[in-house]
Specification:
The strands form nine sheets. This protein has a six-stranded mixed β-sheet with strand order 16-19-21-20-26-27. A five-stranded mixed β-sheet has the order 7-15-14-9-11, with no helix packed on it. It contains six helices and 27 strands. Strand 20 and strand 21 form a beta hairpin. The chain is elongated, with a radius of gyration of 32 Å. The chain has 423 residues and is an alpha+beta fold. Helix 1 crosses helix 3 and helix 4 (302-310) packs antiparallel against helix 6 (360-369). The chain has helices at residues 162-178, 250-259, 262-274, 302-310, 339-342, 360-369; strands at 5-8, 14-16, 22-24, 28-36, 39-47, 53-58, 62-64, 74-79, 90-97, 101-102, 106-108, 114-117, 119-120, 125-133, 139-146, 152-156, 186-190, 202-206, 209-216, 226-234, 241-249, 286-287, 298-299, 350-352, 396-398, 408-411, 417-421. It folds into three domains: 5-47, no CATH class; 53-146, Immunoglobulin-like, CATH 2.60.40; 152-421, no CATH class.
Length: 423
Amino acid sequence: GTPVTWSSSDPAVSTVDAAGLVTAQGAGMAQVTASAGGASGAATVVVTQTATALSKISGDDQTGAPGQTQPAPLTVQVTDARGSPVRQATVTFTVTDGGGAVGAATAITGADGRASTILTLGAPGSQQVTATVVGTSLAVIFTATATPPFDIQLRFLRAPSPAQAQAFAAAERRWESLIIADLPNTRLDAAAGQCGSESPAINQTVDDLVILVTLESIDGEGSVLGSAGPCFIRDDVDGLTALGLMRLDTDDLAVVEDSGLLPAVILHEMAHVLGFGTLWDRQGLLTDPSSAGGTDPYFTGANAIAAFNAAGGNAYLAGRKVPVENNGGEGTADSHWRESVFGNELMTGFVNQGANPLSRVTLSALRDQGYTVNSSGAEPFMLSIGLGALRAEGPTLHLHDDVLRIPIKVINQAGQVTRELER
């Protein structure tokens, strides 16, 4: 007899062997044709696939800066029971935890059964994106982590309460959102006791700042609430902190927590570890200090002066700019903004009931010290020159002697101590 030949118009949909046996390959429509001599006939083959599996191909467990689009796309593959790719399946990508945004919320699988989108990270922390095949229960979860360029590592030497831990974490996130550039990594080899009496030995590479936190009885209720400052600083042009210490008096914490002022206190003290008020003299940014008999100490950084003027300081005629605290005794004077001028601003030597705004003046001072800051993250604040400083009603905490007074060690990038500064 006359031999019969078989062919398929789309082998990706179906194949046909010499005996005319048709095998489905993928979803779609194809023509199967039989030819014998001059005669031929065709049949339409429609193949539908049932998606039975969804797998992650690329893009899982990425890390980057907040707002950064991740380099690897989030790619999934849909397959059927035979392991064959399912094309024309609809896949949705939904941010299910931690913020961030996807480039395409819906994608259609191609001939390889794959669909993709891109992820732009949100706020610092973990992020999740769930990919789902529409019309099925198939789903996979991609994870990612947004790590701020400036990273603060908190190490508690004594366990905090849940409320205290929450306040510390909030302050950490706040400063990480305001300081927006990395500092040079530096090796740190600190012996036990070199950053407070309870400090452990530390042997690590620091990126960017490590803060030891101890909650201890300092001097009983009603006196020193705590103290904070640098222990090890970098040996470079700016000399910024690598390791610092925050001490809070457990005898005072209950009162502070009950007053609702703990978050402001911790945010304030963390600024001292960064170097606010604790490194000014070394950096040549403090003139006429009270400790040397001066009566009008002032901060000389150009960025802080400009921000002070923009906040109403153009009308300030009582002394040099930016006015630094000249009262309150050791640990308050020379290391805070002047309360009589700044009122309820966060970095005076007093924490007030109600708002304690972290102003653009404070961020600009940190910029003068060498940090790259996000000035738009400052809170609204205006001076009331000539009208008396704005002060809130209610309790006021005097942050008496809250500047840590221990020797500061200067280290190079290899971790070697090059010199020691007395305070």
